[in-house]
Design a protein that fits this description.
mainly alpha; Glycosyltransferase; two-stranded antiparallel ribbon; 4 strands; about 50% helix; about 0% strand; disordered N terminus; disordered C terminus; binds 2-acetamido-2-deoxy-beta-D-glucopyranose
């Protein structure tokens, strides 16, 4: 993800005045009404999907959305399918194709042609979508199970754990030529923690729990997660050149969500008070992301500076809040209040665009605010999904592995042995090659910039 690299926003001027206003109705106490709303919002997200278009890439969304945005979107789309439309074969194969196609040559969510953009967090967000498919029992591909693919992504991420700098932690980037390679951040480590916790619980296997412990304890030790008094701060990250001491003091909702839900899975796994306190503290401090119970990406929202990535963070945050509320019962009331109020606001923002159902960024206005994109659609989709999750209902339980059938077929080493583990590039790329890679990045960026300017003109 690119919190530091400015992106060219594509200017779409197609929004004409031919508006047939059909605002979305959302009765949060009526599941069919919630699913009807979710369907409209989800179809709005699919408007940006390239995989069905001539010449488009299966699994990808239109620019300025990058590879990771697709992983983020499919996590919410899998949930929508499971909750609301699980007999829809067309949608099922769309999801199947997209999620399987992007697994890459080594089936671990490091496709070689994303090496100019993919960081540990991007791989982690894709793996979270695949884990969503595991827990929802989404139909498996013929040649690999979703579980095996999740384990492969997890294994490659965990193998990049770097004790040489800052006494541990994942770097932000996987590849040394990408800007941010010398930065360690909370979101990359949060993805590893979150996946470890979910795998520990799903497989009832302590090997994964130990990884979750390792990541959490390092996050505390390095000062990313809590301050000296133990209060949650969960800052963005820091550079290895300062031994991770120059904290970038920015806070993002999805980082809170990913750690919170990871702690909730760990609590469900071993009932340790460490995790109850961890999840509860993160829920409590997440109140910063609400204004009158309506979710806001506070770091950038009021200053109107949210970039394309940041505009989507509330989707993952909502998903994680929903999961947390199921696994840590004592958080259920607070989270339900936030979700229900935010979902009503989000649905009310979806009366924009030529279709009259385009969603906006500001969920407090009761109407569209003129901002639109994949992030606005997926944010609204997942907060509406979370209404279903937080309503006690057997569909919304979080399943564990169904014993033998699953267990006997797992390759616990999947993903390992490929070229995508460890920080290989750091070791193998010589100074000269590095300069070459840097120049290549510059050329690619120049081409992208030129293309973006051309689009605007
Ligand atoms: C629930 O919502 C559905 C779909 O919007 C609607 O047809 C139905 O009448 C609603 N049921 C109740 C009890 O309001
Ligand atoms: C299946 O889902 C797609 C995408 O939401 C939708 O366009 C289509 O109408 C659905 N099909 C049926 C039979 O409901
Ligand atoms: C990248 O690789 C995938 C397969 O991993 C391929 O389907 C896709 O067309 C390639 N190109 C882009 C732009 O994603
Ligand atoms: C999961 O789906 C398979 C078919 O895809 C089915 O046989 C199995 O019963 C399902 N398991 C659960 C727990 O729903
Ligand atoms: C570097 O940071 C780590 C993590 O905070 C800490 O454990 C270690 O002692 C630090 N090393 C030095 C030399 O300050
Ligand atoms: C830590 O949190 C407590 C309770 O919310 C608060 O009173 C205290 O001022 C906080 N400490 C710091 C250093 O912010
Ligand atoms: C929490 O769990 C208890 C026991 O399982 C149940 O009685 C109670 O209703 C739950 N509370 C909430 C807020 O869901
Ligand atoms: C737990 O996971 C580890 C590492 O993936 C694996 O080697 C081990 O066999 C698993 N244990 C069980 C009981 O499945």
């Amino acid at each position: 993800m690119f919190n530091y690299i400015p992106r060219i926003a594509y200017v779409v001027t197609a929004l004409s005045s031919l508006s047939m206003v059909t605002a979305i109705n959302l009765d949060i106490n009526n599941k069919s009404s919630v699913c009807d709303a979710a369907k409209i919002v989800m179809n709005g997200a699919l408007n940006y999907y390239e995989g069905l278009k001539y010449g488009g890439t299966v699994g990808m969304f239109a620019p300025p959305n990058y590879w990771w945005n697709a992983g983020e979107a499919f996590g919410g789309i899998v949930d929508y399918f499971s909750f609301c439309d699980s007999n829809n074969k067309t949608l099922e194969s769309l999801i199947m194709d997209a999620m399987y196609h992007q697994a890459g040559e080594n089936f671990n969510y490091v496709p070689s042609n994303q090496s100019m953009t993919e960081g540990n967090d991007d791989q982690g967000v894709w793996a979270m979508a695949i884990m969503q498919a595991v827990e929802r029992n989404f139909t498996n591909p013929e040649s690999h199970s979703w579980l095996e693919l999740t384990i492969a992504a997890f294994n490659t991420m965990n193998s990049r754990w770097d004790t040489e700098h800052c006494n541990g932690g994942l770097r932000w980037q996987i590849f040394s030529w990408n800007s941010g390679y010398d930065y360690k951040n909370s979101i990359a480590n949060g993805c590893l923690f979150h996946l470890a916790a979910r795998l520990a619980r799903y497989l009832d296997n302590d090997t994964y729990a130990q990884v979750a412990e390792k990541v959490w304890d390092w996050m505390v030790d390095v000062g990313f997660l809590v301050d000296d008094t133990g209060n949650v701060t969960l800052y963005d990250g820091a550079d290895i050149s300062t031994n991770c001491t120059d904290l970038t003091k920015k806070q993002w909702s999805y980082t809170y969500g990913i750690f919170m839900a990871g702690a909730a899975y760990m609590y469900d796994y071993n009932q340790d008070n460490k995790w109850l306190k961890g999840a509860t503290d993160l829920v409590d401090t997440s109140s910063w992301f609400f204004e009158n119970d309506i979710m806001v990406e506070r770091q950038c929202f009021f200053s109107k500076t949210c970039n394309n990535d940041q505009r989507s963070f509330r989707s993952l945050f909502s998903r994680c809040l929903g999961l947390t509320s199921l696994l840590v019962n004592s958080t259920h009331n607070q989270i339900s209040t936030w979700i229900q109020t935010s979902a009503k606001g989000a649905a009310a923002s979806c009366n924009g665009g030529t279709d009259g159902v385009t969603c906006g960024q500001d969920w407090s206005k009761g109407t569209w605010d003129g901002i639109f994109g994949l992030g606005e659609q997926t944010g609204a989709l997942e907060v509406i999904n979370a209404v279903i999750v937080t309503t006690p209902d057997k569909l919304s339980q979080v399943p564990k592995a169904q014993a033998d059938a699953v267990m006997s077929s797992i390759d616990f080493n999947s993903g390992l042995g490929s070229q995508d583990n460890v920080n290989l590039n750091e070791i193998t790329v010589t100074g000269k090659d590095k300069a070459g890679a840097g120049a290549l990045t510059a050329i690619v960026l120049a081409i992208i910039l030129a293309g973006g300017i051309w689009m605007v003109l």
